[in-house]
Specification:
Helix content: 25-40%
Strand content: 15-25%
Number of strands: 21
CATH class of the largest domain: Alpha Beta
Largest sheet: 6 strands, mixed
Radius of gyration: 22 Å
Structural class: alpha/beta
CATH superfamily of the largest domain: Metal-dependent hydrolases
Number of helices: 13
CATH architecture of the largest domain: Alpha-Beta Barrel
């Protein structure tokens, strides 16, 4: 049986299950969403553009939208605005490091962040105002093996647990080395991980812990490792090489110092927040990662994600790479790109509306939509939903796209 996280409560899980059930019973109204610029993905832009939303998902885009589907949908017209996929917040505890950790034990790989999921957490419900439509709830980096993360979404009526059983979280940072319990050093943390991973891999060790570790080593789930300094990153990469997995490194402030190894081991990076006061070396790190072909995304604090991308662009990062680092990259690092991070057919209708380019800070954030429902911002201008009006709108959009 899985051990519960500290301070987790049964009513949180019950509430989340109820929300999922309500979502399944309440399909969203069909919508034809239009704007001057619709970014389906960082490399695919329609201008003017449109996409059709059915039951909270993107059903059709652009000229592929059937005439009969256009005719029956409510037209949501954002005029001269720009629509981009919703931002994806990569692994984070969202300020709940203590709640998402086991205080007495350093090694708890079978704990699940979903068991401590709070659908009414204030920080979760505030995410849409920053353009964030989904996030990976992570176990705390306070534990050497923290447990299993989950994909969650905010919403007007509370958060939703979307995928409860995703990445395995490990940590080699100072937060995981507690002087009041073992391990107290980086060497001790590495020895603990090597011993347990070896036992799980060989099948000598049984139980829930070993099952989670074995599944991760066999490629059944991604392995996320918190590591910041050069020494921590080298240790994480040594571990990944020894046990043959491709790590997702969170924090990675000194990633520029281990760039050849990141490339060789196909590692990915979740960067912390960028700030104008940081050294030029840190502000140019996204450019170096992009030029080296190392997948990365912007993490850190939710309220600074967009600023991080803007600063990276100002220091040489291509705008397409910057937008991808806010959207698809984070989804792809945890194998959720079929569901979030783009506005492709079959993905969730999660999108953000700006008055202009989202990577220009003078562009106003107008609205955030999640699963085809507006959860933040003012209502758009809506064209009449009669068949005649919808057909006229469709003809205008199609002609412009051609």
């Amino acid at each position: 049986m899985n051990r519960p996280f500290a301070k987790s409560t049964l009513h949180h899980a019950t509430a989340a299950a109820a929300l999922l059930a309500l979502a399944a019973l309440s399909p969203a109204q069909d919508l034809l969403v239009r704007a001057r610029t619709v970014v389906l993905a960082a490399d695919t832009v329609l201008s003017p553009g449109s996409f059709l939303v059915q039951k909270g998902k993107v059903a059709w885009v652009g000229d592929d939208i059937p005439a009969e589907a256009r005719a029956g949908a409510t037209v949501v017209d954002y005029g001269d605005a720009t629509i981009v996929p919703g931002f994806v917040l990569p692994p984070t505890t969202l300020g709940r490091d203590r709640d998402l950790a086991e205080g007495a034990l350093a090694f708890t790989p079978d704990l699940r962040a979903s068991e401590a999921f709070d659908p009414w957490q204030e920080q979760l419900l505030a995410l849409p105002k920053f353009g964030i439509t989904s996030m990976f709830l992570s176990p705390s980096p306070r534990n050497v093996a923290g447990g299993i993360g989950a994909l969650v979404k905010p919403g007007k009526d509370g958060g939703t647990l979307v995928a409860p059983d995703l990445q395995l979280t490990l940590s080699l940072t100072t937060a995981a080395r507690n002087p009041e319990r073992q391990p107290t050093s980086l060497m001790g943390a590495m020895e603990l991980l090597r011993t347990t991973l070896t036992a799980a891999q060989s099948g000598v060790q049984g139980g829930p812990d070993a099952a989670v570790l074995r599944q991760a080593l066999q490629g059944g789930r991604r392995i996320v490792v918190h590591a910041d300094t050069y020494t921590e990153l080298m240790a994480a990469l040594d571990l990944a090489k020894e046990f043959r997995f491709e790590p997702v490194l969170v924090g990675a402030a000194d990633a520029g110092k281990v760039l050849p190894r990141l490339i060789a081991q196909k590692a990915a990076v979740v960067l912390g927040s960028l700030q104008p006061s940081q050294r030029l070396e840190q502000l140019r790190l996204p450019v170096r990662l992009a030029e080296a072909g190392v997948p990365f995304c912007f993490g850190g604090r939710a309220e600074t994600m967009r600023l991080s991308a803007v600063l990276a662009v100002r220091h040489g990062l291509d705008r397409k790479n910057a937008l991808q680092a806010l959207t698809r990259n984070a989804a792809a690092l945890l194998d959720q790109q079929a569901n979030i991070g783009a506005l492709r057919q079959g993905t969730a209708a999660d999108f953000v509306v700006f008055s202009g380019d989202p990577l220009d800070l003078d562009s106003t954030h107008l609205a955030t939509w999640i699963d085809g429902a507006r959860v933040h911002g003012a209502a758009p201008s809506q064209a009449a939903s009669t068949p005649a009006a919808a057909n006229q709108a469709a003809a205008t959009t199609t002609a412009g796209a051609r």
